[in-house]
Specification:
The protein is of the alpha+beta class. It is built from 17 helices and 10 strands. A 5-stranded mixed β-sheet has the order 1-2-8-5-3, with helices on both faces. It has a 3-stranded antiparallel β-sheet with strand order 4-10-9. The chain starts with 15 loop residues before the first helix and ends with a strand.
């Protein structure tokens, strides 16, 4: 049975207490039904693993509707004109496109993420992780987020794309401002920051593309330019939007997965002790930490054609919010889902999504997570928590403001 009004739910994505621990509210949602209407965001919440997994593959849903309908035909109000720079940037990236444009762009980008290509990055990732952790150890500790979790994936994806090293410090602030728009009901201030970052990031990449046209390299941006110039398969805006998407997605998830994961380990000392005693647990530990406190809590889709979930018809024009965090704690799929079990073998978590929008960088993210975890376990075996961390005031992209640690 669907809830008629979400105001009676414990689900409150703006409540600091909920953001600290949303999992009891997810349990309530799963007990209440398979699909529930949440009036504050005008979305249908889907909390069960089986439904989320199925809907991610359902072509009656889409990340966009503009390949089939106008805003007016779909019963939607166009975004404000002052937000246009953000939407131009966002709407031309493959995450927010549907076939055939999504297929065309993903096919091209996939060439940079083949198993062989990603595997060639492993030594670079491992060496960088060891350097970052060694510096943390030499300092006696620091902020695990700022000193290790963030610089590692930023450097890797920037290296792939060919972003000059002196420019890389600008990427994270731009990314954070743009990603603010993915939260539920973003404020005008958030939108203004995202628009400004979209303009600055786009201008920067436009200049970089111009430079790479003059002097091509072995990087992904040069590869995108070559494909554009040879076959006109990408517009310049598609190149810019693809680069921004890869930069943002290429580090946001890994950064937050790293600090969420270590915070979970510190709160579960028995599991941390087991991991320190047996490094062969690292692969399954990464999957379990991604399940236990996923960095992406919610993924939205538009209903392009009427669908039915558990006897409830969701009409065309509605928006569905698939709750990854809830699906990953569903007791119908995971035994003792609220228990962190680094040795868990049956672990079909959906933290990397599924279907045509499955995370193209998942293999690289796993290499990065394994590299930083291995380096920390080997070089900082006495790593301890120095201070209780604060949660970022975000729901959709779940992370910490920082994670202060000591090496004794």
């Amino acid at each position: 049975m669907a809830a008629a009004d979400g105001r009676d739910l414990a689900f409150d994505p703006w409540d600091p207490a909920f953001l600290t621990d949303p999992y009891p509210a997810y349990a309530e949602l799963r007990a209440r039904g398979r699909v529930l209407y949440f009036e504050p965001t005008a979305q249908w919440l889907v909390p069960h693993h089986a439904d989320v997994s199925s809907l991610l593959r359902d072509r009656r849903l889409g990340r966009t509707y503009q390949h089939r309908f106008t805003h007016e035909d779909f019963g939607r109000t166009p975004p404000p004109a002052e937000h246009e720079p953000f939407h131009v940037l966002n709407d031309h990236g493959m995450l927010d496109l549907e076939p055939p444009d999504h297929t065309r762009i993903r096919r091209l980008v996939s060439k940079a993420f083949t198993p062989r290509t990603v595997e060639r990055l492993r030594p670079y990732v491992q060496n960088l992780a060891e350097e970052l952790v060694s510096a943390l150890v030499a300092a006696g500790g620091g902020d695990l987020l700022g000193d290790v979790a963030e610089p590692l994936p930023v450097a890797v994806i920037a290296e792939m794309l060919g972003i000059p090293e002196p420019d890389r410090d600008r990427l994270r602030p731009w990314s954070a401002a743009i990603c603010g728009m993915y939260e539920l009901n973003p404020s005008q201030e958030t939108a203004a920051k995202a628009v400004r970052a979209s303009l600055e990031f786009s201008d920067y990449l436009r200049e970089l593309i111009t430079a790479r046209r003059r002097e091509p390299g072995e990087d992904l941006i040069s590869g995108l330019i070559a494909a554009h110039d040879e076959g006109d398969r990408l517009t310049e805006q598609e190149m810019i939007s693809t680069a921004v998407l890869l930069l943002n997605a290429g580090h946001e998830a890994t950064v937050n997965a790293t600090v969420n994961g270590w915070w979970a380990l510190f709160r579960n000392p028995d599991q941390l002790s087991a991991l320190r005693a047996d490094h062969s647990l690292i692969p399954s530990a990464i999957e379990e930490l991604l399940r236990y406190d996923t960095p992406l809590q919610l993924f939205e889709r538009w209903v392009l054609d009427d669908i039915e979930i558990a006897g409830t018809t969701i009409p065309r024009g509605a928006e569905i919010a698939m709750l990854f965090g809830s699906a990953n704690r569903d007791p119908e799929v995971f035994e003792s889902p609220d228990r962190l079990d680094l040795g868990r073998r049956d672990n079909p978590h959906i933290s990397f999504s599924a279907g045509i929008h499955y995370c193209i960088g998942a293999p690289l993210a796993r290499i990065e997570l394994a590299a930083s975890m291995t380096a920390l376990l080997e070089k900082a075996p006495t790593l301890t928590l120095a201070a209780e961390p604060e949660r970022k005031p975000n729901f959709v992209i779940r992370g910490l403001e920082g994670l202060s640690v000591e090496v004794r």
